[in-house]
Amino acid sequence: MHDINWWLMAAGFLLGLLLTFAFMIRRVEREVPVSAVMGRGTASAAERVGGHEPYGAGSARAVASGSGPAGWTVKGNEESMLYHTPDSPNYNRIVHDVWFRNEESAQRAGFTHWGEGRATGPYGAGSAKAATDGSGPAGWTVKGNEDSMLYHTPDSPNYKQTIAEVWFRNEESAQRAGFTHWGKGRQN
User: Fold this and answer.
1) Is the pTM of this model over 0.85?
2) Where are the domains of the chain?
3) To 5 degrees, how large is the angle CA 97–CA 99–CA 101?
4) Judging by beta carbons within 10 Å of its beta carbon (0-12, 13-18, 19+), is residue 184 exposed, middle or buried?
């Protein structure tokens, strides 16, 4: 009889440990190299580890530490195809795959300035992907939830708890993108 208690306790411990590890695993953000999706073929091993000029003259892959060539301050993110300059609010937080000598090099490579990229986001003009900290562009107050396709305005009772996956400049931008007002979504 006492052996059963130990087995139950051990099984409970293992189940708790398994669930803890299961919830710690994060969703994969990118499985396929963006260069392959964008039609540039797969990057060579030299390009993936500090290679030279993956996007032509004036570009370099970030090394394992994330740093780039001395004096280069323009960072590029291949997933968003945006480049960030030191005046970007997310400059120190973005995941950068490539460094550029200057903005002209980034533009020649097909990257868009971070300010312009946020004006036309994943749902067209007036939408922007949430930054890594969940914030949106200054002055934008409409939060969008991509799972429910609902948008929340500051008068929503769930506004503070809602984690914005996309931000909209105004309600019209959210409606053009196919999102429904939070109040109308609850009535269905």
Assistant:
1) no
2) 34-116, 122-187
3) 165
4) exposed
